[in-house]
Amino acid sequence: MTSAPVVPASSDPPSMISARGLRKSFGQRGKKGQGTEFEAVRGIDVDVQRGVAFGFLGPNGAGKSSTMRMICCVSPVSGGDLRIFGLDPATHGPEIRARIGVCPQEDTLDTELNVWENLYVYGRYFGLPRDVVKGRIDELLDFVQLTDKARAKVDDLSGGMKRRLTIARSLINKPEILILDEPTTGLDPQARHVIWDRLFRLKQQGVTLVLTTHYMDEAEQLADRLVVMDKGVIVAEGSPRELIERYSTREVAEIRFGVGQNEAAAPQVSDLADRVEVLPDRLLLYTEDGERALQEVLGRGLRPETTLVRRATLEDVFLRLTGRTLAD
C-alpha cells in the first residue's frame, strides 16, 4: 500500500512560518532619495500552522513570488520579521533549507540522467549517505507511482510523470515544509488529480504545504487557508469557503451577448443582482438565485447568446478584491 513518507516529530512551535510587517524591496535610492527602488512586498503578516496547506493567491506582480523566495531563504528580507521553524533566515538559512522542500513551477530535471539518478544526485546534494538515499528513492518512487519508470529517461516521461518526479525530488530530504509553485500547471485533469491525491497524503502525514496556484479548483481542493495578495499587501485571508461567503453571493449567473455588446447591456440588468461584473466576453450577475435572475433578464426582452448558473468560486473573490482575474 502506497503511503507518504513519515515526517519526524519536532519540538518547534505550532507556527511553522511567522511573518510580521514583512517587506521586500528591489533597487537602491540615491543620496537625494531618488532611484528605482520598488517595494514588492509591503508589510504583510502571515502565520502558517503545522500540518496545514496554506495558499498564496494573487495576480501576477502581487508579491507572491517575492514572499515565497524569502520563505525559501533564497532572498533576504528587506524589512519586518520572518521566522521559519522559529529561526531567523538571515542567520539560520542553511539549517532552514535542510528542513524544507521546494517544488518549482518549471521542472528543472536533468534530462541526461534517468529517473532514479535524478533522485540520487539530488539526495547527495543534501549530504545524505548513499544507503539512506537509495532507500528513500525506492520509497518515493512508490509514493509517486513511478517505480516502473526508475530507469527511464526524463524525456520519455509524460508531463504528469515529470511533475510527480519533481515532487518526489523535493521530498528526498523528508522536509517538514513543502513549498509548491504552481504544482499542476499545464497538466491534464487526470494528472492533476493524481498529484492532488499525493499532496493530500503528505498533509495527512504532517507535512506543511505552502503553495501558489492560478487554478481556483486547486486552491479550493488543497488549501486549508489562503491569503489573497494584491500590489504587495494582503487584501483578504481565510479558508476558501470563508472567503467565498464573505466576498461573493451564493450563485453567479453568467450571460454572454455578442462581441462588444456586454458592456452596453450591463445597465439593463444592474438591478437584478447584488453586483454586476463586466468582463470582455460576458456579464456576471452575483445573486442568491441565479435562475430567477436569468428569467428576469429574458422577461425584459434581452436575448443573450449563452447563459449559465453556477456556484460562486474563488475567481469571483478575485474579481471583487482586485478587479482582475488570476491570469491577468
UniProtKB/TrEMBL annotation:
It is found in: Cell membrane. It is a peripheral membrane protein. SMART domains: AAA. GO terms for molecular function: ATP binding. Its main location: membrane. InterPro entries: AAA+_ATPase, ABC_transporter-like_ATP-bd, ABC_transporter-like_CS, ABC_transporter_ATP-binding, P-loop_NTPase. Residues 17-256 form the ABC transporter domain. Keywords: Antibiotic resistance, ATP-binding, Nucleotide-binding, Transport. Transmembrane segments: none annotated. Belongs to the ABC transporter superfamily. This is ATP-binding cassette domain-containing protein. It comes from Nocardioides panacihumi.
